[in-house]
Specification:
about 10% strand; alpha/beta; 11 strands
Length: about 475
């Protein structure tokens, strides 16, 4: 049952030679074979090569050679992060056969640290969605109840970790796509500060909002993975040239003196009662451990969701213009001329949600509407960032629910895009302000589904977030509860 352990627990077993890399990889592959037909977290599995790599890790360990801090651990990656010689589809028909000739910077870092990549994970097409129902291949299911969604867009990454089909995974977060599925699947998901992790090799959705981050089984694994993937990258112009701290040093079971702000806008309208009570209970626990908290108002977040959909859709319209069927990816079978090739390829290659956002973004960027929509959206973005900066002059962290509800039924919100977009109402402002935030499990609702607690920090202060998250995890009774699948 080694696959049920956390990454750091398994690494300790490999280090002490109580288990080999091959045995660990076989255990994870056996787990995948037993549950994947129900969960459907993966798009591509690389089982055969993963076993070969595990044997090579074992050879190196037996010779006393350095294999990196991950010790050949089997990990999996969201399918919008480029992996050399392994298909990277963005869960889209238009990239169904795309095999990158290079690794994203985060993949190179993980390989250098001893990662054994076991496969690529399902997602909403081009990371546009909150339920992983927008994948061109299949719908991923939540391991806690396979009739419900795992969240999105990194639904495959979250479901995979929850079902013990990998030790940890990478996702991407543009408006909550790591934190919301982490909340719905009962795992830990970190969205680092914009610029903390290189985006080189991440297939762009909205370049000023996208951020790669880890989904893990506990907070310790989150700190371990952040140590590996963070750092300045000259290949990414938005990568911040600042030193990476040792995040594991922030794993301190102590919140004495920590000041917590709780925006009342996140605890009122639209928040499920059980979710709100779980967050209130978490605040009581942190208070009993020495933290202080108070409610405050941040009224500008009312405009966060419309601002997000103007900015993100506009940038998506620009970024996705490159998929025309000429150099790579899907190309329509019959066409009359070049214009017809573009039109048919894009009409047949993109799904409905991606087309909706391309049209919205193209409209917002068009002549006569740019100032009224996109430019105004950027101005509101600055106001939202300023409001968070002011809040952080009083508080060390801000706490809220991650998602307004627990996992909803598959198909329940597909026909109502606005209702689906509301799933991200608590997470979107963090991306707009470029801040770091984590989602950790805080409890279960009356249906036995996980509830997530969001902890938001100052820019480049992931350490305080990890300290609060670790303290809560160590003192709550939600640890080690797993789905019965």
């Amino acid at each position: 049952m080694v696959q049920n352990l956390t990454a750091h627990e398994t690494i300790d077993l490999i280090k002490s030679k109580k288990v080999s890399c091959k045995e660990v990889t076989e255990a994870v592959l056996n787990r995948i074979n037993s549950v994947e037909d129900k969960v459907k977290a993966y798009i591509t599995l690389d089982s055969e090569n993963a076993l070969k790599r595990a044997e090579k890790f074992d050879e190196k360990i037996s010779k006393g050679e350095d294999v990196g801090p991950l010790y050949g651990l089997p990990l999996a990656i969201k399918d919008n992060i480029c992996t050399k010689d392994i298909k990277t589809t963005c869960a889209s028909k238009i990239l169904y056969n795309f095999v990158p000739p290079y690794d994203a910077t985060v993949i190179k870092k993980l390989k250098d640290a001893g990662m054994n990549i076991i496969g690529k994970l399902n997602m909403d097409e081009f990371a546009m969605g909150s339920s992983t129902e927008n994948s061109a291949f299949h719908t991923t299911r939540n391991p806690w109840n396979i009739e419900t969604v795992p969240g999105g867009s990194s639904g495959g990454s979250a479901a995979c970790v929850a079902a013990d089909e990998a030790y940890f995974t990478l996702g991407s977060d543009t408006g909550g796509s790591i934190r919301q599925p982490a909340s719905l699947c009962g795992v830990v998901g970190m969205k680092p500060t914009y610029g903390r992790v290189s985006r080189f090799g991440l297939i762009a959705f909205a370049s000023s909002l996208d951020q790669i981050g880890p989904l893990t089984k506990d907070v310790t694994d989150c700190a371990l993975s952040m140590n590996i993937i963070c750092g300045h990258d000259p290949y990414d112009a938005t990568s911040a040239p600042i030193a990476t701290p040792d995040f594991t040093k922030a794993l301190v079971n102590d919140v004495k003196g920590i000041k917590i702000g709780v925006p009342k806008e996140y605890m009122e309208k639209g928040i499920n009662d059980e979710v709100r009570k779980s967050v209130e209970k978490a605040l009581e626990l942190l208070e009993s451990l020495g933290a202080t908290w108070e409610e405050f108002s941040i009224p500008i977040v009312e405009y966060a969701l419309p601002t997000y959909y103007i900015i993100a859709s506009s940038e998506a319209s620009s970024n996705l213009a490159r998929y025309d069927g000429v150099k790579y990816g899907y190309r329509t079978e019959s066409y009359d001329d070049l214009l017809d090739l573009y039109k048919k390829t894009r009409s047949e290659g993109f799904g409905a949600e991606v087309k909706r956002r391309i049209m919205l973004g193209t409209y917002a960027l068009s002549a006569g509407y740019y100032d009224a929509y996109y430019k105004k959206g950027l101005k509101v973005r600055t106001l939202i960032k300023n409001a968070f900066d002011e809040a952080f002059s009083k508080y060390d962290v801000i706490i809220s629910p991650t998602s307004p509800t627990t996992a909803f039924k598959i198909g329940e919100k597909v026909s109502n895009p606005i209702e689906m977009y509301m799933s991200d109402i608590c997470t979107v402002p963090v991306n707009i302000a470029g801040l770091p935030a984590i989602s950790i499990p805080s409890g279960l609702d009356s249906k036995g589904l996980p509830i997530g607690l969001q902890i938001i920090g100052k820019a480049f202060d992931e350490e305080t977030i990890l300290r609060v998250a670790y303290t809560f995890e160590q003192n709550s009774n939600i640890r080690n509860i797993k789905p019965k699948i």
